[in-house]
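Budget justification note: compute hours in this period were largely spent on complex prediction jobs such as the one shown. Inputs:
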Amino acid sequence: MRRMSWFNITSLTLGFAFLYLPMLILIIFSFNESKLVTVWAGFSTKWYGELLSNGAFLDAAWVTLKVAFLSSTMATVLGTMAAIVMVRSGRFAGRTLFSGMIYAPMVMPEVITGLSLLLLFISLNVDRGVMTIVLAHTTFSMCYVSVVVSSRLVSFDQSLEEAALDLGCSPFQAFRLVTLPIIAPAVISGWLLAFTLSLDDLVIASFTAGPSATTLPMKIWSSVRLGVSPEINALSTLMILIVTVGVVGASLINKRNVVRQRREEAAAAKLA
Amino acid sequence: MALDVFAPWNDPDAKPLIQFKNVSKRFGDFTAIDDLTVDIFEREFFALLGPSGCGKTTMMRMLAGFETPTEGNILLAGQDIAPVPPNKRAVNMMFQSYALFPHLSIWDNIAFGLKRDKMPKDQIAARVEEMLRLTRMEKFASRKPHQVSGGQRQRVALARSLAKAPKLLLLDEPLGALDKKLRQDTQFELMDIQEKTGTTFVIVTHDQEEAMTVASRVAVMDHGQIVQVATPDVIYEAPNSTYVADFIGEVNLMKGKADPQGDSLQMHWAEGQPAVVGSPLAGASKGQDVHYAIRPEKVSISAEKPVDAANAVQGKVLDIAYLGNISTYHVELAGGQIIKAQAANNRRISRRAFTWEDQVWLSWTATAGVFLER
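Corresponding output:
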């Protein structure tokens, strides 16, 4: 392997420092003994203990997980359906418009999305609570699912589905028994992505939440306005941990599949 | 010809399994199939042969149910199959890419269609075992498709499409992905399996050798039409057009004016060259434009003018293609026409009689070639 030049090492260090130093500091101070956030007074895990006995935080965490689970599941169903239509239906009038409209929420400012959803809910006279946050999160995360799933579907050999039909499947059976199992890794990645997006959303949740439902990011934001406490640091560290495990897990699953497939194909080639 | 030879197409009472009746298929402005009518009989091994884009794959996809004809009817055992969706047809297809389900084992791939039919479990197992035996894949039943070689995948695809015992099996370029040696072995295997199972096979291929080897009849296609349907030997020996003659194997084509002479036909084709003599062409009148097709292996090459040959022309050797077992001599005649002649290399190459620039005589009998109208 080639040795890296000093220039490259410096660039790499600076880049990573820029990305991860803030989080590193947050993680370090979550283990701080002192109540003062910026003064180090020795190692301790007491803030994690206090966090667990704080009912308000636990409630918010529960709401967040519920919202993330429901919205990512709905987004996965809708996003996969949208992806199938966009990839399979070929050319039709207004196709570009439709695909643009599916992906537009990705670049739409969150404030706009949140505000418009708020206005919709008010005009429909819907009580704002967990369900409204779920709906809001579904709308903005389904486009991410759709992107992930359609990139897999593009390389999907359509004759597999035709073979299923040919062997006696109804179109729905063909999807359930052949297409879905094959694109499952992409669907799962999409679900994980939607889950993490929902987990850390503050803006849209703030617009669409009611007094009965507060998500964790909202709770953190409101308590930070009264001053940063080490408890928040501990909580944030836990969230970083969850998100990291999720993302690393998803990419490991993907990578392992690829590696295994290559190895088996190589073995088959040798056999031939 | 003996009476027990399999030739239902010559029997006026035989009922065809598949009938294409004036079928056309258009994709927008493009006509893939143009007013096509053909009958395919039970137990036949029928080959659709043609260059890419000639409509052979579209014909097959219409039989499978993935396309519907724009005009005309397709009958399977006398019934119009247009309204029948692919999953309800007694037709199975072996895909060019094999389309094996990568997430299922080879056993489950073969069982896939049987399970859809709600067949009892023990019968499914028995049928799968039978298919595995037929294709000699017993040892690999628990592997996934990407864990076996290309030739084995091809056999699994065949087993899967045969498992439901279809009335008709469609094979879309089934051997395209295999190397030449394996392809030849597999061709014989296919014929063997076709005979054992008694299934009607329709194969799509662009490889003329493959079509000639496996098929009971070959349909040569061009631009959405069938140019000729016949047994491989008729296609080769008596093509009905220069297109067919040229598409199948190597051929020398000459063009000239017809001159009927009683029970033979002469063709004047060049100033100062003797007329080509051959069997008559029905309906050819004097002075009409005709083509003459003769296969290189039917042309003899010699140093001296043969005494009693019906056709003999002189020329010089321009090129020699040495193919091991045979050599093809490209001989240029006085008018510039090049005739290919093939000779078996029954002596070692160092003892070869002719070399470049040699003056040679080419000769062939009166029945060796055919006159063609177009």
